[in-house]
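Section handout 9: paired folding examples.
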Amino acid sequence: MSDPDDDSLTQVMSCEVFGTLRLHPWFSDVGVEEDFYSLCVKRAQAYGWTTTLHSAGSEPASIRWHHAEAAQDWSQDGRVRRLAALEVYPAAPRGQALPVLPMTQVVADCLGRVGEVRVSAYRYGLPVHLAAGLGADVVDGDAWFALSSPGASVRAEITAQLPLSVRRKVTHALREQNALHPGPVRPASPSTSGESPALSWTWPVRLPEWSPSAVAWTTSAVCEALRETDVRHTAIRVDACGGDSPSGD
C-alpha cells in the first residue's frame, strides 16, 4: 500500500477491513488460485465500476475507479487481523461522490466469498478534494436505515484525521444524520489514530446496523462534511464497540 508520507496519497482512495476470517473448508480444495486483488477486479467489473478489459480512454462511462494495489492476511489463527486492503485511483467523478459504498461492497463481497467474516473495523483513506458531488448514500441514508431492525442497532466509534478548525463542522454534520446519535467528540487514542501526524478525533455513535452499507454511509457523511473545506485527504476509521462484533455480511 502507499507510503503515508507520499504526496501522491492525495490522489488515492483505500479501504481496509479488520476482523477474523474462517476460510470455507472447500476453499483450498477446488484449486482456486485467486488472490484478493484478482477477486476484487473481477467483482468490480461485474458491477461495472471498474475494468481491465479496455484501454485507457475507452472505458465505459460507469467506471468509478482504476485498481492500484491490494493486500490480504487470511491467517487461520482466530486473531483480529487486517484481512484485506484495497487501494484505487478514483476516476473523474463527473459530479459524483467518491465511490465509498461501491468500493466497500466489493471488498465485503470478496471476503464473504472465501470464508466466514466477522468484521471489527473498517478504515478508509479518502481524497476529499476529488469528491465532486453529494452521494445518494448520504442523502437517502436516514430513510434507508430507518428500515433496519430495531434490534440491529450497535454502538460504534468514528475516528477521523482532520484539523481542529473543521471539527465543529463535522460534528454538526454527523448530528444531522438522525440515525447516528453521535456523542461528545474527544481526541482519538493512539491505538485508533495510528502514527499519522494529523490530529485525530473520535465520535461515539449509534449505527442502525453493522453492515458494509451502514459503515459506508457513515464514512460518506464525514467526507461530505469535509468536501467544502481545505482538507485534501483524510483517514476515517469505523470501529464496532464491544468484543462481539457482528458479521460483516
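Moving on to protein 2 of 2.
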Amino acid sequence: MSTSRYAVAARLAATQTFINVPTTLTTLVALPLTELLMLVAVASAMNSPQLVMTAYCGALVAAATGVMAQSIALVTYDRNIGVLHDVLLTRFFNPVFWFSKLAVPCLNAALMGCVMIGGIWLFAPDSSAKIAGTALALLPCFILAGALLGFACATLSVALNDPYLISNVVAAALPLTAGVLAPVSAYPAWLAVLVQWLPLTHGIVVFREVAAGNGLSDAVLLHALAELAICCTWALAGVLASSRILALIRSGRRTEEIW
C-alpha cells in the first residue's frame, strides 16, 4: 500500500470535521459544551462544591475519549473495506498507517479541548484562571493518553465482531472512574483501589494536585508515571491480542478475515 492512501484517509477524516461551518461548530463547539453542561448538572445534583473543577476535569477526559472515539471510527472504516486486514498481515507496526488514524483525531481533540477550557473560563474567569492554565498545559498529555487508548481499543477489537464494543464501554466508564465528578479519595475504599488500575485516573489526580497549587511533587510525578504506564499497558495488551489473531490467520487455523 502506498503512503498516498493513508494521506487520503487522513484528509478524509479532516474533511468530515471541517466539511462546512455548521458541522465544524457542532463538532468542535456545541457537542463538547453540551457534554460539559451535562457533567456539571450531574455534579450540581450531587451537591458537589467543586463545579468548576468538575467541568475542567470533564473537558480533559472528553478530549482523551474524543481521540479514542475518532481513531476507532477511522480504523473501523478501514476494517470494513478490508484495508486493516491487509495492513496488519503485511506489517503490523506500520507507523504511517497508525499516524494517519491518530493525527487528525489528536488535532480535533486539541481544538475541542481548547474550546471547552475556554468556555469554562468565560463562565468563571475570576475563580478559574489558574485552573484553566493548568488544564491547557496538561491537555497534550491527555491527548497522548487518548491516542494510546485509541490504539489499544482498535487492536483489542481485532478479534471481536463489534469494533466499537470496547471503546463504547471505556468511553462511558472513564468520566466515572477517572474522578471527574469527585476526587478518587472520596470514593469507597474498594472502588478507589480498582480505579487506580484504569486509564486517566492518575492523570486527573495530577491535574487536581497541580491546579490546587501543590506543584510537581514526587507524589504527583509518580501519578504521572503511573498514568503513562497504564496507558502503555493497554496498548501492549492490544498488540498481544491482535498478534494472537494474526498468528492464527497465518497458520491457517483461522480462515476468515478480520471483521
